[in-house]
Amino acid sequence: MFGLKMAWACLFAGLMLVAIVLTALLWPAGAALARYDFLVIFAISAQAAFLVFKLESWAEARVILLFHVSGTIMEVFKLHMGSWGYPEAGVLKIGGVPLFSGFMYASVGSFMARAIRIFDMRFERYPPFWSTLVLALAIYLNFFSHHFIWDMRYALMAATIGVFWRVRIYFTPFGMRLWMPLVLAAFLSSLFLYLAENIGTLTGTWLYAGSATFSFASIAKLGSWYLLLYVSFVQVTLVNRGALGAPQ
């Protein structure tokens, strides 16, 4: 039941990943509509369907829009710095970044928001909210600043443990109330995101600097996903403050 509910919570991310893989395999060469542009239209249509069929609330959609904006800003910067690139043509781009990439970040937010609701999650021993905001902002800024100054990722990883090590996530897969340390949940989630990134990379939808073909993402990306998950989680808590308390 836990696996089924997790898959249901991952629905938007799963749809995006399936669309990326299938279009990479089946998209006809020379098509009038670029594959990147189709992925943008597909993502918008899926998001609209989630709202129409009440798979997401409008409050969740607003925070997912925040994910899209913050993710796209980072993508434009990283592309400019040469961290990775998008080799295919497309019209629906900002600063060379296809707009569907923002939906890949938004899919993380969608998963978190839906999982909190589907599993009726409660976060016990949650730290002061201001401290989580400061930490999330520091992590986000480090994704930019490490290109110019010392990379603080290891200090920030230590900070995540210092801030969140007491937090327990209480959740209900099926009848029984269970719990898991939040730090452990973040690490396990980062493993799945790292796997998903490599699947996307296998399709050639994006390429890392210095690579003309598929290459596995550096293991350092696992640490990046671990940190990004905290940024994502804090953004979700902006509209889900009710879960930040003792289990019911």
**What are the segments in which pLDDT stays under 50 over at least 5 consecutive residues?**
none
SSE order, as H and E? HHHHEEEHEHHEEHEH
Give the beta-strand count: 7
β content, as a range? 5-15%
Oligomer: single chain
User: What class, by secondary structure content?
Assistant: mainly alpha
Helix content: 55-70%
Radius of gyration: 18 Å
Global morphology: globular
- Quote the distance from N terminus to C terminus: 21 Å
Largest sheet: 3 strands, antiparallel
Structure description:
The protein contains nine helices and seven strands. The protein has 248 residues and is mainly α. The protein has one domain (2-243). Strand 2 (93-94) and strand 3 form a beta hairpin. Helix 6 packs across helix 9.
Short description:
The protein has 248 residues and is mainly α. 61% of the residues lie in helices and 10% in strands.
How is this fold's topology laid out?
Blueprint: H1 2-9, H2 11-26, H3 35-52, H4 58-80, E1 84-85, E2 93-94, E3 97-98, H5 100-118, E4 122-124, H6 129-145, H7 153-164, E5 168-174, E6 176-181, H8 182-202, E7 207-208, H9 220-237
Antiparallel strand pairs: 1-7, 2-3, 4-5, 5-6
